[in-house]
Design goal:
The protein is an all-alpha fold. It folds into 2 domains: about 55-180 and about 295-325; about 185-295. It has helices at about 1-15, 20-95, 100-135, 140-180, 190-195, 195-220, 225-250, 265-295, 295-300, 305-325, 335-350. The longest helix has about 70 residues, at about 20-95. It is rod-shaped and about 160 Å long.
Amino acid sequence: MLIQSYKNYVQFLEKPRVSTLQKILLFMVGLTFVLLGSSSAFLYWQYQKLQPVRYQNQYLEIASSGFIGTNQSIEETLNTFKVLGTKVKIIDELKEASSASSGFFVPLDDLNKTIANIQSVQKSLLFQKEQLEELSPPGKFQNIHDQLKQYYDQTAQTFAALEKEQKFTRDLLLALGPNFYLPVLTNETLWQLAKGQDIIDYYQKIKGEANQTLANLAHLEPPQEFQQYHDTQLAYLELLIKTATKITEVLSEDDKLEKDGATQLEIAYQVLTGAKRENEQIAEKLLAERLKFISQKENFAKLASVKIRQNAINGRLADIYNSQPQTASYRFPELSKFFDFPRNLFNYVTSFKI
């Protein structure tokens, strides 16, 4: 037994002892794990601490980007009114020289584009409102959240009324057709050729088409704001029919035999000249009524309440962004110093021979 104990003692003495360098290395490894664990814990704490700010910024990004996108769509729609209003003015100024069909199809095409833009804005408003309703706003943003929802609701109502106006404008245009969109009473080329029968045939044809157009307009039920426009259009057609009837009657009579008497063609042209003076007033009223519904200026006025709310929300969002803290990836500028001690200690120890 004594011999066995001695053997155990000898074996213990023969075991390799842990060197100082190994102890230092073990200490450094342990210290490194401690530092990494501490930094991970700190990062997690920092992440949790900034979580509310991150959610606030995420909410602001979604809400403001939708608001900005919708406003851009509204501006694009206003620009289409600018183009349409300008074209209508130009065509009206050149009505005696321009093709009636071009005067009809150009605004018709632009009206279709405008209606499509309005409908696109309405879809955008609905989408942004629904997206906003799916978000749970941070408490500090509840007020701007409610303002945005109200803005989308009220703007959608404004654009619904605008769409209704543009659709009736298009319906009125379609009822008139290409022949009577421009308030023109004659074809000057026929008078220059001085062929009475051709003029009679022209006005008989025009009279029949004008009566059909009157019937088309009778089927429309104009909203109150369109009543003046509708009535002015009727006044033009009635003047055209009356002028056509009178000119046809005059030209159907034979020329009188008086020496210095006017020919029936000259008398008929005098009738046309008098009708033109009356038609100038009607044409001015028609242009003014059309521009009420298609010019940028008039429609900008209709959207004035939208712009006021838009500017108020823009200002509020700017104030929020200026005061809102921003999150960033946390950096440890002094972290390297934690590792300087074990690194320097290791370099110091290894400089000796052990």
